[in-house]
Amino acid sequence: MDQSQPAPSGAPLSLHQAAQLLASASLSVRDAEVRLALAIDRGELPANILRWATEQWEGERLEGNIDRMRTFVARADLDAWLAAQAGEGS
Description:
The protein is mainly alpha-helical. Helices cover 40% and strands 4% of the residues. The protein has helices spanning 15-22, 29-41, 75-89, and strands at residues 13-14, 72-73. A two-stranded antiparallel sheet has the order 1-2. The radius of gyration is 13 Å and the shape is globular. The relative contact order is 0.20.
Protein backbone atom coordinates (compact mmCIF):
# COMPACT_ATOMS: atom_id res chain seq x y z
CA MET A 1 0.00 0.00 0.00
CA ASP A 2 1.24 3.49 -0.84
CA GLN A 3 1.66 5.02 2.60
CA SER A 4 0.65 8.49 1.39
CA GLN A 5 -2.81 7.17 0.47
CA PRO A 6 -5.64 7.01 3.02
CA ALA A 7 -5.73 3.83 5.08
CA PRO A 8 -8.69 1.48 4.57
CA SER A 9 -11.43 1.87 7.16
CA GLY A 10 -10.32 0.29 10.44
CA ALA A 11 -6.68 0.01 9.38
CA PRO A 12 -4.07 1.80 11.47
CA LEU A 13 -2.86 5.14 10.16
CA SER A 14 0.77 6.01 9.68
CA LEU A 15 1.82 9.08 11.61
CA HIS A 16 2.02 10.85 8.24
CA GLN A 17 -1.55 9.83 7.29
CA ALA A 18 -2.82 10.96 10.69
CA ALA A 19 -1.04 14.29 10.21
CA GLN A 20 -2.70 14.69 6.82
CA LEU A 21 -6.09 14.31 8.54
CA LEU A 22 -5.19 17.02 11.06
CA ALA A 23 -3.73 19.45 8.53
CA SER A 24 -5.68 22.63 7.87
CA ALA A 25 -5.13 26.18 6.69
CA SER A 26 -3.61 26.97 10.08
CA LEU A 27 -1.72 23.67 10.64
CA SER A 28 0.70 22.26 8.06
CA VAL A 29 1.20 18.51 7.64
CA ARG A 30 4.73 18.92 9.02
CA ASP A 31 3.47 20.77 12.11
CA ALA A 32 0.81 18.10 12.61
CA GLU A 33 3.51 15.39 12.38
CA VAL A 34 5.54 17.18 15.04
CA ARG A 35 2.48 17.54 17.27
CA LEU A 36 1.62 13.84 16.93
CA ALA A 37 5.23 12.73 17.45
CA LEU A 38 5.41 14.75 20.66
CA ALA A 39 2.16 13.18 21.90
CA ILE A 40 3.47 9.70 21.06
CA ASP A 41 6.83 10.38 22.70
CA ARG A 42 5.09 11.65 25.88
CA GLY A 43 2.86 8.55 26.01
CA GLU A 44 -0.31 10.57 25.40
CA LEU A 45 -1.09 8.84 22.08
CA PRO A 46 -0.61 5.06 21.85
CA ALA A 47 1.28 3.97 18.74
CA ASN A 48 3.23 1.13 17.17
CA ILE A 49 6.52 3.05 17.00
CA LEU A 50 9.44 2.59 14.67
CA ARG A 51 12.39 4.86 15.36
CA TRP A 52 15.20 5.86 13.03
CA ALA A 53 18.78 5.18 14.03
CA THR A 54 20.79 8.41 13.89
CA GLU A 55 22.53 7.43 10.66
CA GLN A 56 19.20 6.55 8.98
CA TRP A 57 17.43 9.92 9.29
CA GLU A 58 15.33 10.81 6.31
CA GLY A 59 14.41 14.45 5.85
CA GLU A 60 13.48 16.51 8.86
CA ARG A 61 13.76 14.67 12.15
CA LEU A 62 10.77 14.16 14.45
CA GLU A 63 10.83 14.04 18.24
CA GLY A 64 12.27 10.74 19.47
CA ASN A 65 13.55 9.86 15.98
CA ILE A 66 10.06 8.57 15.14
CA ASP A 67 9.69 7.30 11.56
CA ARG A 68 6.61 9.12 10.26
CA MET A 69 5.82 6.54 7.57
CA ARG A 70 6.29 3.38 9.65
CA THR A 71 4.87 4.47 13.00
CA PHE A 72 1.17 3.63 13.21
CA VAL A 73 -1.75 4.77 15.36
CA ALA A 74 -5.18 3.23 15.60
CA ARG A 75 -7.91 5.56 14.36
CA ALA A 76 -9.84 5.08 17.62
CA ASP A 77 -6.76 6.13 19.63
CA LEU A 78 -6.26 9.17 17.39
CA ASP A 79 -9.92 10.14 17.79
CA ALA A 80 -9.73 9.75 21.59
CA TRP A 81 -6.56 11.85 21.71
CA LEU A 82 -8.16 14.56 19.54
CA ALA A 83 -11.23 14.58 21.80
CA ALA A 84 -8.98 15.00 24.87
CA GLN A 85 -7.15 17.84 23.13
CA ALA A 86 -10.44 19.56 22.32
CA GLY A 87 -11.52 19.19 25.95
CA GLU A 88 -8.31 20.85 27.15
CA GLY A 89 -8.84 23.76 24.78
CA SER A 90 -12.35 24.59 25.96
